[in-house]
Structure formats: structure tokens, C-alpha cells
Specification:
alpha/beta; Rossmann fold; Hypothetical Protein Ta0175, Chain: A, domain 2; 2 domains; four-stranded antiparallel sheet; globular; binds magnesium ion
Length: 316
């Protein structure tokens, strides 16, 4: 995954910090027939990004938390980097676990073509010419939180209550009121940071409840349904490029930048992917590695990657 032109298998092994949605990453592979790579290969320095890939780049897909942000804030450097990409005719699409309420703002105010939110539950895009916000749900919205009819997984609210009861120190994420399709358990944002054993306990409970889940650097998100960040990317590309074949071509002219286990489907599905340096603490726990990694962490690493892309794009 992530480092062209080689290919290989993408997938998830037992023990990976992923939920059922991880199984969807194989669908992304069929877009190009070559996404994915040998598991366990160390990412290369971002300075080794191929110049040809930078010159042909059309879209930067990026995670938000601890990729664009540092310590929970969006620094001027990251926001400027988004505008720098915009001014070089590179589209930007954030792909985040953050809620619908945040994504509505980002789609309208930031220099982005669209936002894929709640780990692939929906895509929002704002057409400035017609002053229309387009909201496309991939998940079924609020009704999906109740789970399928009949015997099966319980409503997400009941499952969240069980997690809070059984894992001391956890809380519902502060952004929960602005979510439409999932629930988010805070283990590191506004609560005293919990260790890996607590995160493992949360994941064990969610697995036993039969829901999909993903771990970010701050939350564990969970939902009913078989989607993830990569299926959201694929659907947005098919919508905007006009079908599956065109989406496959477009994916070959895209890069993803991220930082944590909930980005793993994108490291697996993108022919070109970059991690900021803070991914290193998760490396033993993920299977699908990015092709490249920055020296700097979080926002500093994102800006480093953008500088490298634009420098190679402009070089003749
Ligand atoms: Mg992140």
C-alpha cells in the first residue's frame, strides 16, 4: 500500500486495532488492481516521494486530528498549507472521524472540495456558485443508530452506556451531540488519557456487541453498518468522476495523509499514502502501513508533506 509502483495484498490480521469495517478495504483494492503492499515494510522518508506522482497529483485526502492539528488546535501553518494546495489546483478532501456538525462547517468555510465524516458515514460538499450544500449519506443517518430490525446488535446508545459503565475513565466524546450516524467514546481528548489496556477493553466490548469500530488518536468510534473511511473516498470519487473506472484512475492521482489506526483502510487502499511521524507509536498495532512517513509530527508533518509535494511538482 501506499508506495507505487509495487503492489500486493492488503488486509487485516487478528489483533489489529480495527473493527469489522476493516474487511471492506479489499473492495478499494479492486479500484486499481494494485493498491496494497507487503505488510510490515517500513515506510520510506517522505523526501523519497516520486516526483512524477507529485506532478500528476490531483487530490490530497487528509485526516484531521493529529494530522492537520497539533495538541487539539489547527495551527496557521496547516490552514495555509491547505490554501497552498488549493492555489496549486490540488483538491483537498478531509476524511475524518469528526461529526456531521463539524463537517458542515468545514465544507462551507475551508478551501476543500468535500468532507467525508464520521469514518465514512457521509460526504458533505458546498457549491459556492449555486450556494448549495450537498449532503450524501452512506450510512442511513440517525435511524442506523438503532441497529437492524429484529434480533441483532443493540442500539448504539445502549452499547455506549455499557462501555462507560465497564471501562472507568471513559466518557462520551464532547462532539457527540453533533453526530448523526455513530457514537464516539473519548479516551484521550477531554478525559485524563487512558492507557492501551483501557482502549483494548473498549474494543473488546464493541466486538462482543457486533458493531463496526475504529480507534483514532483520541476516540473509539462505533457504528452499525459496513463502511469505513475508504468506502467513503471510493464513493465520492465515483460520484464526482463519473463511475468506477474513472474513480480508479482518479485514485491513482491522489494521496492520503493520516496518523492513526482508523486511517488504516486508507493506507491499504491508496496507491500513494503518507503518515505523519506520530503514527510510529501505532506501528506495532497496524497491518497496512503507509508508503511514506514524515520527520515531523502532526501539523508539522502535514506541512512537511505538502512542501515536499509542491517542491517536486514545481521542479523541472
Ligand atoms: Mg487522526
Amino acid at each position: 500500500m501506499g508506495r507505487p509502483p509495487e503492489g500486493g495484498e492488503a488486509g487485516h490480521a487478528a489483533g489489529s486495532v480495527t473493527g469489522k469495517a476493516g474487511g471492506l478495504t479489499g473492495e478499494a483494492d479492486s479500484l486499481t488492481g494494485k493498491a496494497g503492499g507487503p505488510a510490515g515494510r517500513a515506510p520510506a522518508p517522505v523526501s523519497e516521494l516520486p516526483a512524477a506522482s507529485c506532478r500528476s497529483l490531483a487530490v490530497v485526502f487528509t485526516d484531521i486530528d493529529d494530522t492537520l492539528t497539533t495538541g487539539g488546535s489547527l495551527p496557521p501553518s496547516s490552514y495555509q498549507a491547505l490554501w497552498d494546495l488549493f492555489h496549486h489546483d490540488i483538491e483537498v478532501v478531509p476524511v475524518t472521524g469528526r461529526p456531521a456538525g463539524w463537517c458542515d462547517h468545514i465544507a462551507r468555510m475551508w478551501p476543500v472540495s468535500a468532507v467525508i465524516g464520521e469514518n465514512g458515514a457521509f460526504c458533505y460538499s458546498y457549491d459556492r456558485a449555486s450556494r448549495k450544500m450537498k449532503r450524501r449519506s452512506f450510512a442511513g443517518g440517525a435511524a442506523a443508530r438503532l441497529g437492524p430490525a429484529g434480533p441483532g446488535p443493540r442500539p448504539l446508545a445502549e452499547i455506549a452506556a455499557r462501555v462507560l459503565r465497564e471501562v472507568p475513565g471513559t466518557a462520551l466524546a464532547a462532539d457527540q451531540p453533533f453526530r448523526v450516524s455513530d457514537f464516539a467514546i473519548d479516551f484521550c481528548e477531554d478525559v485524563a488519557p487512558l492507557g492501551q489496556p483501557a482502549v483494548d477493553d473498549i474494543c473488546r466490548i464493541l466486538a462482543s456487541e457486533g458493531v463496526s469500530y475504529r480507534v483514532s488518536s483520541i476516540h473509539v468510534n462505533f457504528w452499525h453498518g459496513q463502511y469505513d473511511k475508504m468506502t467513503g473516498v471510493r464513493t465520492w470519487l465515483e460520484d464526482t468522476r463519473g463511475g468506477r473506472e474513472a474513480a480508479a484512475t482518479a485514485l491513482g492521482h491522489s494521496v492520503f495523509i493520516g496518523d492513526s489506526p482508523n486511517d488504516e483502510p486508507l493506507f491499504a487502499g491508496f496507491p500513494l499514502s503518507i503518515a505523519v511521524a506520530n503514527l510510529e507509536r501505532f506501528l506495532p498495532r497496524i497491518v497496512s502501513l503507509p508508503g511514506y512517513i514524515t520527520r515531523g509530527e502532526s501539523a508539522e508533518g502535514f506541512c512537511e508533506a505538502c512542501r515536499e509535494i509542491l517542491r517536486k511538482r514545481e521542479a523541472r
